Amino acid sequence: MFARQTCVAACSLFVAGALLSGCSSSSTSTPSGPARATTLFVGDTSGHFIESFPATATGNVAPSTKITSANLSGPFSLFIDSQSRIWDADFGTAHVLAFPITANGATAPSVDLTCACFTGPVGIFVDSAGTIYVGDFSNNSLFVFAPGSNGLSVPTRTITGANTLLFCPEGIWVDGSANIWVSNACGANIITVFGPAQNGNVAPQSSITGANTGLGSPTGVTLDSAGNIYVANFLTPSVTVYAPGSNGNATPARTITGANTNLGEPYGIQVDSQGFIYVGNDSVPNAVVFAPGANGNATPAQTLTGALTGFAAPASVAIH
Fold first, then answer.
1. How far, in Å, CA of 138 to CA of 2, rounded?
2. What whole-number distance in Å separates Cα of residue 246 and Cα of residue 237?
């Protein structure tokens, strides 16, 4: 953090968790289901670069690509949009940038969004319509920009003020109902949720906060397709997972924490369609991947670490 420096069967086929009957004895089928992410992107806040790795990579592995644009200076949050662009809310330059996911080397961004409202943008999410959501750590604000915004722009919505309960907003996720989930790293250890039309100095429509939640300076937040809520906690360090619809002083359904986890100041977090959990650790430095259903003092399924990775402070992650 700034101040603390992804059969052959006779008569049955198993598909996506369901047993289907009635295939012919001569049929040959391949099990199908949700696909795992193929690529993991990691933003390094000290090295000021974005690297990519195969999503299944582990150990001391060199990156497949490395974006070293002069525009990068503190990529604390990454997001891959539906147009296969990688977005960075860049704290160091106070710009929001986008690059093609195939970018490599010294690459100029395809989008360079600025705003007089920015003082320290960190959180970033871009929905399927292209609407851009930015969380500003330094002024406790959430900004929403129209699709296609580029250059000096003015937000269409600004959520800010004492009623919002925004305290150093860092992670942002927008669910299928256009509710905005925000992890707040300072203050009251709170996940705030705003509705699709909320604007101004408004109270969140719901929040997760309280002693039972296990939150400890939450820096990253993401939801899976079932609505489960995953939070990276910088200070604990831990990953807490909450049931869909959790609100108030909710107890996590799962908590990943302990010496075996390799977590150290976890920051960014993403979950792929198979349930693999990808976490960037700001201080270890490493990026870890937990198997679906991981809980307790779980050993990661994968740990990216070592000199070949180039990691100094691999805080942010995104998957494709």
1. 10
2. 21
The CATH number of residue 218's host domain is 2.120.10.30
In the numeric block, which tokens belong to residue 179? 């509710």
What pTM value is reported for the model? 0.90
CA distances from 267 to 15, 264, 313 (A): 35, 9, 10
State how far the Cα of 77 lies from the Cα of 316, in Å rounded to an integer: 5
Assign 283 a pLDDT band (cuts: 50, 70, 90). confident
The confidence score (pLDDT) of residue 31 equals 53
CA distances from 47 to 78, 82, 93, 119, 137 (A): 15, 27, 14, 21, 20
**CA–CA distance, 301 with 69 (Å, rounded to integer):** 31
Q: DSSP readout, 185-210?
A: -STT-EEEEE-TT--BS---SEEEES
For residues 6-24, average pLDDT:
32
- Whether 96 is in a domain gets the answer yes
pLDDT digits (tens, 9 = 90+) for 171-229: 999 999 999 999 999 988 999 999 999 999 999 999 999 999 999 999 999 999 999 99
State the total domains in the chain.
Answer: 1
**Amino acid letter for position 35:** A
**How many Cα atoms sit within 13 Å of 297 on the Cβ side?**
3
Domain membership flag for residue 2:
no
238 assigned to some structural domain:
yes
CA dihedral 111, 94, 42, 181 (to 10 degrees): -90
| Dihedrals phi, psi of 145, to nearest 5 degrees | -115, 150
> Within a domain: residue 147?
yes
Neighbour tally for 210: CB within 10 Å: 15
CA dist 23 and 235 (Å) reads: 53
Domain that holds residue 273: 39-319
What pLDDT is stored for residue 20 in this prediction? 32
